[in-house]
Aldo/keto reductase (Guyanagaster necrorhizus), 317 residues
Amino acid sequence: MSTVVLKRTNQKMPLLGFGLWKVTKSSCADTVYNAIKAGYRLFDGAGDYGNEKESGEGVRRAIADGLVKREDLFITSKLWNTFHAKEHVHALAKKQLQLWGIDYFDLFLVHFPIALEYVDPNHRYPPEWWGDDGKVHLANTTVQETWTAMEELVDAGLAKNIGISNFQSSLILDLLRYARYEPQVLQIELHPYLNQQPLVDFCKAWGIAVTAYSSFGPQGYVELGMDKSAASLLTLDAVKSIAAATKKTPAQVLLRWATQRGIAVIPKSNSHDRLVENLGSIEFDLSDQQLKSISDLNLDLRLNDPILIDPRISIFA
Ligand SMILES: NC(=O)c1ccc[n+]([C@@H]2O[C@H](COP(=O)([O-])OP(=O)(O)OC[C@H]3O[C@@H](n4cnc5c(N)ncnc54)[C@H](OP(=O)(O)O)[C@@H]3O)[C@@H](O)[C@H]2O)c1
């Protein structure tokens, strides 16, 4: 499996992993187990996905059956917005580790640079974006406070690597001014309709690895009714013709467009066949011209935008 080496720890992060958002809870343990059996080693979870316990069950079964050892896996999770205050970060990381049934995360990310009012996990978990009254309640926690608490997770051995998600460059630049441990990974929405080239270049200059989420663009949002009616990337002529020329599928071409440039991907699938198909995206190369023609599909079309939740948290404005 191709990897990217993370700054500070020199740990190797697989360039291709499995995304756990919207993985059906009732079949999640089997999906994770079978994904490991098929060859996946990186799993991208989050408190917000509501399936950490089931994901952990799949992992534990795979380890018990001798398919892998814990150290062969790279498990990522994320801190949710309601737990940004310093007194909650450690407790939540502990809770999430307990749900997974493991004692450290390979990577722990701040899910969004948005602090929301605390919701006691005993009251509601995952808490999502809204209070009991259906409204969004902001909290006054700064990113610096949260990041300092994230660094303490490294000191406590709960997270080997730490990073951020959905951050833009000016906020990262500020974070780098006070960071004791620099963020090793930035996870962002990135696909041909939102190629994020300036942010990718910024990360390269700072040695921050980039993970692309929603590699298939609108496809991941169809099931939520949030695809903005954008044309499917999987059926575009520009992508299909490259798939035909390389004897690969459109999905494999979209994934390779990222990984060939050192950008990690974490496609999600509830289908075993598609999950195996996605795994087959690493063993071929696209020409420079093919890479460029896919990058040229950029429309600056963002699908995962908190502005849809509340205009006060329009972090990409
Ligand atoms: N940090 C963040 O804020 C954030 C936000 C969004 C996502 N993420 C992470 O990124 C992961 C991936 O993003 P995503 O779930 O939005 O979308 P995605 O992986 O781009 O797309 C998933 C969609 O594509 C379909 N699909 C998967 N493989 C396919 C194939 N080979 N051919 C055709 N269709 C295929 C899936 O359907 P089936 O399931 O039916 O196959 C699903 O509808 C998430 O699971 C999560 O781990 C992070």
Q: What stands out?
A: Residues 221 and 295 are 21 Å apart (CA to CA). The beta strands are 3-5, 12-14, 18-19, 42-44, 74-79, 105-110, 159-165, 185-189, 209-213, 264-265.
